[in-house]
Amino acid sequence: MDLTPATREFILHWGEMGTKWGVNRSVAQIHALLHIMPKPMTAEEICDVLGLARSNVSTALKELQSWKLVKATRELGDRRDHFSSVQDVFDMVALIVEGRREREYLPTIDALRRVTKEAEADGTPKETRARMTETLETMEQLDNWYQDINRLPRSVQLTIMKLGAKIARFLPKSG
């Protein structure tokens, strides 16, 4: 399978962005390929198209499956797995955000809760405790906001997104 220049550029850019997001370049490139392909692909096809080692592709596919971004299906008469990405971009972003929340954000909130409590008893200066508390409270507020928005139906979420900065016109100006 030959990739068009635009397809190749999309995959390369997604791989570069992946490294900036803390994701292995090959994992991000495989995800990009599966995301834009119109039909599922076998691991062998992914290897051929991207020029990656089979072991690298297998590891990346397992990682993408653990994030629920890629699923494996079977076809009659073929013993191989066929892999496809979540096609709906909104669903894909929601899975990524939720995964990062679980792996990164919530553990940070838990750590801040522990150190803030510990700081009350270990002689941490008042100003430092106040900063820790402010950080914890802000992160908890952001997480609560995220959860509130996440509970809304998608149509409402999309409406809120489309409103975007227009909401600022209805808010008091600062300064």
Automatic annotation (TrEMBL):
SUPFAM superfamilies: Winged helix' DNA-binding domain (SSF46785)
GO molecular function: DNA binding; DNA-binding transcription factor activity
InterPro entries, A to Z: ArsR-like_HTH, HTH-GbsR_regulator, HTH_MarR-typ, MJ1563, WH-like_DNA-bd_sf, WH_DNA-bd_sf
Keywords of this entry: DNA-binding, Transcription, Transcription regulation
UniProt-listed CDD domains: HTH_ARSR
Keyword Transcription regulation among record annotations: yes
Family (UniProt): Belongs to the GbsR family.
Organism in which the protein naturally occurs: Profundibacter amoris
Entries under Gene3D superfamilies matching the protein: Winged helix-like DNA-binding domain superfamily/Winged helix DNA-binding domain
Name of this protein: HTH-type transcriptional regulator
UniProt-listed PANTHER family: HTH-TYPE TRANSCRIPTIONAL REGULATOR MJ1563-RELATED
Residue ranges of every copy of the HTH marR-type domain listed in the record: 22-80
